[in-house]
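Exercise 7. Predict the joint structure of the components listed below.
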Amino acid sequence: MVQNKKQHFIVIDDSKLDCFIAEKIIKNTGKCESVTSFQMAENALEYIRTQATPSANPTIILVDIQMPVMNGFQFVEAFEKLPENITDNYSVFIISSSINDDDLNRVHNYRSIRQFLNKPLTSNNLSLLLSKD
Amino acid sequence: MEKIKILYIDDEQNNLNSFKATFRFDYSVLIAATTEQAFRYLEDNNDVRIILCDQRMPDKTGVQFFEEIRNQYPDPIRMLITGYTDIESVIEGINRGHIFRYIKKPWTDTDIKSAIEEGNKFFLTNSMLKVKNSELQSAYDELGKFAYSVTHDLRGPLLSVLGALQIAESEEDPKEIREILGMMGVALNKLDDYITSLHEYYSLKRGKLVYEDINFENIVNDVAGLFKIAGSMEQIKFNVTINQTGTFSSDEVSLKIILNNLLSNAFKYQRKEANDKFVDVKIDADNTNAVIFVKDNGIGIQAEHIDNIFTMFFRATSQDIGSGFGLYNVKDALNKLNGTIEVQSVFKEGTTFKVTIPGRAHGTK
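Solution:
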């Protein structure tokens, strides 16, 4: 494992407060190169589609499930349809308040989803996640 | 009360004639000398409740006829009339024809009458059961949606606040902390809104309508107070025009739920950058009708979402806080009042809701 590697983050959550919390906690890890938040999944998708330069470490995406217009699963479906040279640059994590079994099981249907994280995001479980890589 | 509709099939014309003569005052009677004729009647009369059929007919037995129609016309009550009381045909009638009664020839008026009355009771109970079953199904479906939404909409804001608390604890800068507190307030307000909507939902589902004379001026004042303050803070022009002539009788609680939700949406879904924001309310009411317009020049609704806006938990925008409950409750309230709602919306230009509610005529209860 490379020590002190810096990473890019993308947070997708319709709740402004939850984006704020995630940003704060991500920045506090000290392993954050940048963090970009989106309250609408479509905008995040557009950003990812048009983002050119691949970085050394994959960008970490934290995406909520229940969002209006485009929900987390719809986002992942659309994301998986992007060309591989784009999707390879990202690791997708679900972050949700859902305790619904269907949601938890559905996560396994998507090859790009690495893990399901419970809200609220804490420094502990974020550090755990980062140390796994 | 409407007469019970009965179909009687017998190949002996005399029997048909005397049957019709005897019962035509009490029931609406259709008579058929052949099963073909009976089929035609069933096709044209979907309100036949009771079918009486003779067992011995030239082309087929009554049991065979019942067996044939059972799948296509399961609802009418089937009764077999026969002069032959062999046990085999009784068994067949019950097992294959699924008959309700077995009537012996020659019949007496009282035999037939009591059979029809009993059959009708059975028919009514069955139809009631069907209605109740479909109500139960939709209640179950809603419960399922509920359970899901409760985890998200009740738990979501709570977890947000917990997360924010955790950050605030390690934050030194008072300015930052105040900002976090503000956001916690927003999350808690959202939770409170949601609980209020749940309460409205419940009152609409279980509550009885209380009809009284409505003064729209008072209702708008009660409902709009909060919005006026919010409106002036956000520089939203709020115009109210009420034109009420005569006495309009309706349920005040339902009216308030309708107005409150429509106004709340109109104020909530403004275009932040617009500098001529407005919300117009226009109410025309007389003895028979109330027509309410709520118009805004806010963010509008995309055409593809219009059909879904009254669906529970549907949210068409990620702007600001919506419970996905508001318009569902509006629609529910209007259903109870026999009212209608129309929506016209242009995305990014604004939305107009038109609500029409019939007033309850005076003196009726």
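Discussion. Chain B touches chain A through 26 residues (CB under 8 Å).
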